[in-house]
Amino acid sequence: MPVLMNFKICDNAEACNAIKVCPTKAFRWNDSKKTLEIDKDKCIECGLCATSEESCQAGVIHFAKTEEEVKKIQEEIDNDPRTIKDLMVDRYGATPINKPFNCSEEELNKVLTGTKPILVEVYIEDTIECLIKSIPIKEIFKCIGNEELRYRKVENTTEEFLSKHNIKELPCLLYIENNELKWKIEGFYSVEEKEKLFDLIKNNF
After folding, report:
1. Model-level pTM?
2. pLDDT greater than 80 at residue 1
């Protein structure tokens, strides 16, 4: 029976965890087409890509055992009102979407010379999570409630930067005003943990 994917809610990225759990490498990234795909000749229908806790937790991948299940799952996918446009917004701990928000440490230092507050997200590739599991930055902005707040996303690879801000865990949010760190929040928070993150933010004001 086939594996079905709901690309409406999939960021379709090379870092997909389903690739890691597939024992035959049937679930793979096609670099030339820039998309995830399943090699039916290699697939042994184990279902790990859809059921393993180490695979996709966003509900994108489905494994059908019968023709009836195929029909039912495909119908659910077809009727899903969500679109990739809904998914592709900047989110805390997820793949950067709007490139202008992305900057190097050197570029960040220039931005910090301004007087307006700035929310800086620090991450490394190893900490990237699925978009659908991650909290939209605009919701974090709404929680903070400062209309002058700016946002930058920095991929960090230097110990000097981490040491400067005493960062122990990534991803991390830094709230900086007048070039002074006011508070930071470390670690990933999923959509299910949104209120917990918002409480931490509110406690800093």
Report:
1. 0.72
2. no
